[in-house]
Amino acid sequence: MTVKLIDTPIDYHAVTESVRDHRAGAVVLFLGTVREFTNDQQTTALDYDAYPEMANAKMQELIDEARDRWPIIHAVIEHRIGHLELGEVCVAVAVSSPHRKDAFHAGQFLIDELKVRVPIWKKENWIDGQTEWVHPASEKSSSPPPPA
Amino acid sequence: MTVKLIDTPIDYHAVTESVRDHRAGAVVLFLGTVREFTNDQQTTALDYDAYPEMANAKMQELIDEARDRWPIIHAVIEHRIGHLELGEVCVAVAVSSPHRKDAFHAGQFLIDELKVRVPIWKKENWIDGQTEWVHPASEKSSSPPPPA
Amino acid sequence: MNVTVKLFAQARDLAGTSQANLSLNEEQSVKEMLASLIDKYPALSQIQGNLLVAVNNEYVSSESLIPANAEIACFPPVSGG
Amino acid sequence: MNVTVKLFAQARDLAGTSQANLSLNEEQSVKEMLASLIDKYPALSQIQGNLLVAVNNEYVSSESLIPANAEIACFPPVSGG
Description:
Chain A is of the alpha+beta class. Chain A is 30% helix and 36% strand. Chain A has 3 helices and 9 strands, in the order βαβββαβββαββ. The two termini of chain A are 26 Å apart. In chain C, a hairpin with a 2-residue loop joins strand 3 (52-55) and strand 4 (58-60). Chain A binds chain B through residues 12-13, 16, 20-37, 86-87, 96, 98, 100, 103-104, 107-108, 111, and chain B through 12-13, 16, 20-37, 86-87, 96, 98, 100, 103-104, 107-108, 111. Strand 2 (26-33) of chain A pairs antiparallel with strand 2 (26-33) of chain B.
């Protein structure tokens, strides 16, 4: 399985082991983790919702695109859904390739595009008890997915 | 310990855990692993030699420089020395930061500069029984360290 | 034709349901489907300008036509990772 | 003055020792130290153009002077990672 949505803690060590290969000189692992502070706002937990069929299809599409662009040996994406506490791993992306530059580029591409294209949503649980769906469209750092 | 030379297998899971933090939204781990093929030449093992005092000092210097350039929360470098079989991890670099772009940039900087500045040397054990010290100066991909 | 629109995240919360059943004319566009959806669930107008639509797991533009027997979903901009 | 030069990797293998003891005049440059080293261990001439020198864990240029009581090391370009 190269892509997975999972409602229990991500075993990123197993994810990393699954991309290791004698043909690879480089492995890059990216972990997204639940951060306590966003500017001045304090988070106590996150809830992730997903559209599972489409999320899996889009994650696989990202891996296929990355394989077209870089000489990847193995690539795996696992994304957590449900309720996550501070510090927990929400996403793990692992890539192996013969040389390090390709592994870095492919890893960064996969997480950058995941955040734009894959139908998964994050709800912040702020310390004051309020909850709020995160909308990248209202943040300056992201652009909406292409309308295909 | 943020930098370490080690003559037993690197526990990259422990390295990664050591950089996780509630302040971090991103963790990037890079692993260099013993690759079987370099162009058409087949490797059976590698031997790493190091100048330990200077290697530790230079690895710490790299981390200090990375901290000046990016908002790093934790950064760790472990490099293996001695005899390594195919597929084994020769170096682990782990970085955590609030946002992913900084973790990727810092991780790539640390491994790129390690390969230029840190006094560690690799000897190839080719399949025909020959051994050969690897000299980046004779490869087009690397430049020698600055003469300070 | 009758279509079922899956709703996610804030779109589901605002509509109060994870599936909206709409009755559309043939050859209607995504934009027209969204108008019917908001007509039925007025709270969705809060995020009207941000709603994305997928047909059979692909993003579609507002001018696309809604095919028969397709899986249709509507949701806000994604925020995974 | 007497200096000890630590040798690593191919430099050590070619010299057949991990420490070279040299007798230098005061105020000699890195370039002059290297000439003495190669004079004593002629096999090092094979990688002469590539040898790097560190004094007290810092890379130094060939024009630098060798200080007294410093830790001196000589080695080929690094290839870790």
